[in-house]
Amino acid sequence: MIKGLQSICFDEPPYVQTGAAIVGKKEGEGPLGERFDEIEEDPMFGKESWEEAESELQRRTANKAIEKSGLSKNNIRYIFAGDLLGQETATSFGVKDLNIPLFGLYGACSTMGEAMSLGAICVAGGFAGNVLAMASSHFASAEKEFRFPLEYGNQRAMSAQWTVTGAGAVIIGKTATNVRIAGITTGKIVDMGVKDSMNMGACMAPAACDTIYQHFKDFERSIDDYDMVITGDLGYVGKELLLELLKQKGMDISEKYTDCGIEMFDKETQDTHAGGSGCGCSASVLCAYYLDEIAKGNYKRILFVPTGALLSKVSFNEGRTIPSIAHAVVLEHCE
Hints:
The chain is α/β, with parallel strands linked by helices. It is built from 11 helices and 17 strands. The protein has a 7-stranded mixed sheet. Strands 4-3-9-7-5-6 form a 6-stranded mixed sheet, sandwiched between helices.
């Protein structure tokens, strides 16, 4: 059922069959370390380049999710997946051996929300029995793609976030479980003229505000109808901006709000400045922690809102602004 301007409420909601999350050493040392399926000590994942390492990360995570679901690869109709690298190279090489039809996606750090949204539509519409939705990022491959090669040894701005080395994958299907996808709100491009690539929180907060505000309007709900609103990777800077922007619209979610970029690392001991970021940030936090908490009934309904800054090397070097987007997914507990 279409809701409002940008949302869908599923008459027969699809279910999250299972989730899997694999991360790197630094992420494993953070507050959620015990919740991940695997922690890889080798940042190269046994490969010869950062890009190959991220592909291996995707391959392992996809296989882990399929293994945990009890399904075979032949039971997965489609893959919806993406990463931060040019032409989706981590995804293309990461899932090629699965031999499953692929929709390669790019929503920057919002990709997990986009993948889950499209996967849920596909299953709810009767076009697939099961699909896999996945996103990944790698600290070193992202630094190489968007900032500076690690060998440069540049000083990081305090507003900069640490790209998570991690991947999260979920299987979405028709079989009833304790977690269902009740609805989605698809984001619009929001561009407030920010050009600072070292301040992703400032770039993405307006997009998060736009999607969250529209979600509540479309579903005719308020924050009281949710246990938590969880953004993707605004970090500490973006969190404060989002709360202020929503308050300007008459909405206060501060008592029921957190951000995956804040949850991933320990601010005091891990020196990640403004927090975590990357496609793999929200994907791995969701799959490692929140899905389990919803399944147990500790949360009855959450709004998962990954955010993405849609810049490229070309647009940045041309001095252009950084447009952003956020996609919301409603996850509910089922008995």
